[in-house]
Design goal:
Length: about 140
């Protein structure tokens, strides 16, 4: 049997969408829309909106809207970048860190619930495969 890369990609996308869908209510209770959560979760790794847009494959204009929402909700604040006073970097607030961590915990719980359907050996193999796939091709 030939494994089709596009089919595997679609299955992976459907799994991630199902997990996000199962957690949508919990995200809403935290005051987060799904894409706002993705932006909030990326802020520490990519503190500039343009970097977030690149990392998440989102239009810069959309990221600007999500950042405004997160600032208004008190989850993120803008700070002047000491290295370049013309730029602002984003910093999660204590409330933002708490909301992000609670959302991540909800997602982890749902993902773990689905992982429980496969053996511990298969989970270890899945982790190995995913890590190998993340290594850039030579």
């Amino acid at each position: 049997m030939t494994v089709d890369g596009a089919q595997l990609w679609r299955l992976n996308q459907r799994l991630l969408s199902a997990v996000m869908g199962a957690c949508a209510q919990e995200l809403a209770e935290l005051g987060l829309e799904t894409k706002e959560f993705f932006v909030l979760a990326e802020v520490e790794a990519s503190p500039y909106p343009a970097e977030i847009a690149t990392a998440l494959l989102l239009p810069k204009a959309s990221v600007t809207v999500y950042v405004r929402n997160l600032v208004a909700k008190g989850f993120v604040r803008r700070e002047i970048d000491d290295a370049d006073l013309r730029r602002h970097r984003l910093v999660p607030t204590a409330e933002g860190v708490e909301a992000r961590d609670r959302a991540l915990a909800a997602l982890a719980t749902e993902y773990d619930r689905r992982l429980a359907r496969i053996t511990a050996r298969d989970r270890t193999e899945l982790q190995r495969i995913l890590q190998e796939m993340l290594v850039p091709p030579a």
